[in-house]
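Lecture 7 notes: from sequence to structure.
We start with the chain below.
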Amino acid sequence: MLHWLQDGMLTEFNPARPAFELRGYAATQEKHDTPVSVAEQVMASRPYTAEEQWTVSQAFEQMERHAVHHLPVIKDSKVVGLLSDRDLLKIEGREKVLVENVMSRKLLTCERETPLWMVARLMTQTRVHCVLVVDSEQNLEGILTSLDLLDCLTYQAPLEMWG
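Predicted structure tokens for the same chain:
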């Protein structure tokens, strides 16, 4: 049985679904002849983004407003960087620091047809929690996070895995 531990007290965990829906859950509820298996089926196809000239405060507000942990950075409709909430929490003077000065420029990307097992393996090997789905022109098509993969695994894993 699962519990919450808070202030030295154990209370029963209520497994109710969160107010937001992860794409993995939605994808597994749709009618598919075959199991969900590629990035396109699980990715968020309209991710929230940031611009290079935003301040870190603006980016952090965007993350909080939409309850996301990653923001792709877009310039001239191309992906040029990525922000994570962990990166932003370390920055002092958020109102003055620009996104372009703190964004990650080395990004793990995949294509829509990339198998999920391959994305998961690369995320594990590189210790990255987010993969950007881009086309050959570096246009952002979606975002796939470790939470999306876990959510998909929860609703579509082979039964013997849970035995």
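Points to note: The chain has one domain: 21-162. The radius of gyration is 18 Å.
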